């Protein structure tokens, strides 16, 4: 009995230490490093590289990035991603990627229903909050407030397209 209590306490302490270490490691990485270390953001990292935005998103910021998952990119119409990753379509790719970035560090607690946020490409995204969900221009936030040393990442389930595309 006493051994079980000790083991549970030890396990709890180890879990807390691992969680703290994981959060600390995330906060020591910039946005690109954080995304590169995530299993579900590989396509985003490839797109950021193709768009020539790595240095920008490694900069001081702060930035808020609404990061589409690999599944979100896979849900685009067939051939869209391949087309966007071609060098001749870099301007379109950059327009889409920068539509996912807001200057400043915007935490989920800073968001309000109906709020419009200016993206770095000059267009605005709209925040919708309801039924326990937060959506950014229709894309559901599936993981919020992932802190990086130069901003924050909110992982979303869709690629959001600027209104002019």
UniProtKB/TrEMBL annotation:
Keyword Hydrolase among record annotations: no
Cellular component GO terms, alphabetical: extracellular space
InterPro entries cross-referenced by the UniProt entry: Adhesion/Biosynth-related, FAS1_dom_sf, FAS1_domain
Domain annotation FAS1: ranges: 28-160
Keywords, in A-Z order: Signal
Signal peptide start and end residues: 1-26
Stored SUPFAM superfamilies: FAS1 domain
Listed name of the protein: FAS1 domain-containing protein
Taxon lineage: Bacteria, Pseudomonadati, Bacteroidota, Cytophagia, Cytophagales
